[in-house]
Amino acid sequence: MKIPNLNAIDKKLLAYLYHDSREPTTKIAKQLHISREQVSYRINKFESEGIIKGYIPLINYNRLGYSVINLILLKFNKQSYVKQFKSQIKESKNRVTTVEVLSKYDLGMLLIFQNEKQRNEYLSEMLSSHSPEISEYLIIEPYFSEFYPLKFLGSEFQPKIFHEYKLKEYELDEKEKKILSVLNKNANVKIIEIAKETRLSAELIVYKLKKLKQENILLGTRAYFDMKKTGFFYSIILINFHNFSKKNQEKMRQFAKNSEHVDSLMFVAGKPNCYMQIFHKDVLEIHKILNDLKQTFPNESITTDILPLKNEGEDINPIPFL
């Protein structure tokens, strides 16, 4: 596959779209010191070449009553089972995204639940009904998650906390549900198109979007990429600290914020007690991240496990319960 030659402006634009894809082209153009026409041309080019696969909303699930987030890693007895399994769980009202894993496990799923009871019933049913196919699994439950911009593309945006345990629940009204349902299909859709599909006024839609942001429900919108076409790869590093104290947690947040390759950081209930999602070009960059991590915690006992991913995710459904 031929990888497009991305220059500095291309990379900064992709980083901008990853941070907030609904920003007006005039504002993006001003930040990048290029014309509005150049911004539109480059975005259209990224979309036509398949570098940008789509646009998704970033949702604070806790505020909508979904306080339990799980990453489920699955190992199958046969590779032929993977495709069949993905097809069967695609329409699940709890599944946000699915990603193929290229090492210890075969598949990862990001799932959301309203409570532990709902989670336990779902996983019990899933694992029992697919027991002949699944040989091994790992359930990871983050209680804190922080999302970072694409620092390696030149982004200078501030991180966003997108998961904190047990926040006060916000009840969406029917108009807000309609608006979010449209954004769930294409988070970059124009206001006029949202109005046509929802039969709501443009003024009300703008007001509702502003309110959802103020209430910390809609954290933003972002592009998601075909990573192979950008020349970068996507991996998870599972990390377990023997002593995961508050001090070490804060040091991990600073490490993730300062590392140009870390996309997000999660603190987990159980073992491993931490994991990072990273973008990288080659194995040397992974080695650097691991070396920097050990140097940051020279007096701690740490174990790591690297899970290369096929892509950033597929069949993404950010708000599956709508």
Protein described:
- Helix content is 38%, strand content 27%.
- With 322 residues, it is α+β, with helices and mostly antiparallel strands.
- The chain has a 6-stranded antiparallel beta sheet with strand order 7-6-10-11-9-12. A 4-stranded antiparallel beta sheet has the order 3-4-2-5. Strands 1-8 form a two-stranded antiparallel ribbon.
- The longest helix has 14 residues, at 116-129.
- The protein is globular and about 50 Å long.
- The mean pLDDT is 91.
Query: How many β-strands, per DSSP?
Result: 12
Mean pLDDT metric: 91
Helix content: 25-40%
For the termini, the CA-CA separation is 37 Å
Overall outline = globular
Notable features of this structure?
322 residues, alpha+beta, four-stranded antiparallel sheet, six-stranded antiparallel sheet, 11 helices, 38% helix, single chain
